[in-house]
Design brief:
alpha+beta; L-fuculose-1-phosphate Aldolase; 8-stranded mixed β-sheet; 8 strands; globular
Length: about 220
């Protein structure tokens, strides 16, 4: 894709994230690796529902700003691109239910997955990265132990990250995460979480391995 096509796709994704209430106002950011050393990334301080292709910024993988005013949270994106060779796109948003799990259950290290076959098959384990102050280098540092093995993760008390081999996969991971988080929350409210039999979980995990690493 040309830079213009990528920019248009990023704008479309930002509008979808806003419409689904996965972010508010200028929250969140989306990026795409255009080449081995440059990424196209959403700007700081612009409402994602009002974003235009010309607003996007260009940043080198070493952090050097080539053009525009890139997101202050670009450290997360740069860490993913540096640590995950297959990463071509990153979506960071604030899905409400996924974040709520980390606020209500600070003891959790991952989103409970053993209750849902679809979560195991489509994503696998969804870890929760420790809290890091927004806009700091620590936001990238807390991701390092989770990369490149995990493509979807929750950021404690902050948001979530999804990366993929293209923009569609990165977006789908965010949508998949919030959908699962909402189902699990509803189950807790109705009566509590129950797990699939251990034998079934093992079979599903083997099926996941055969499906490959992409988020489905």
């Amino acid at each position: 894709m040309t830079q213009e096509q990528v920019a248009a796709k990023i704008v479309s994704i930002c509008q979808r994230l806003n419409a689904k209430n996965y972010l508010a106002s200028a929250d969140g950011n989306v990026s795409y690796r255009m080449s081995d050393d440059r990424i196209l990334i959403t700007p700081a301080g612009v409402n994602k529902a009002e974003l235009a292709p010309e607003d996007l910024a260009v940043v080198k993988l070493d952090g050097t700003v080539v053009s525009g005013k890139p997101s202050s949270e670009r450290a997360m994106h740069l860490k993913i691109y540096a640590s995950a060779p297959h990463a071509r796109a990153v979506v960071h948003a604030h899905p409400p239910t996924a974040i709520a799990w980390t606020i209500a259950r600070p003891d959790l290290k991952e989103l409970p997955k053993d209750s849902m076959s679809e979560l195991i098959l489509a994503v696998g384990r969804v870890p929760i990265a420790p809290y890091a102050r927004p806009g700091t280098a620590a936001m990238g540092e807390v991701l390092e132990p989770l990369l490149p093995d995990h493509r979807v993760m929750i950021l404690a008390r902050h948001g979530a990250l999804s990366w993929g081999e293209d923009l569609s996969e990165a977006y789908n991971g965010m949508e998949r995460l919030e959908h699962a988080a909402l189902i699990l929350k509803s189950a807790v409210e109705i009566g509590g979480l129950t797990a699939l039999p251990s034998v079934e979980i093992a079979v599903l995990e083997e099926m996941r391995k055969k499906l490959g690493p992409r988020t489905l």
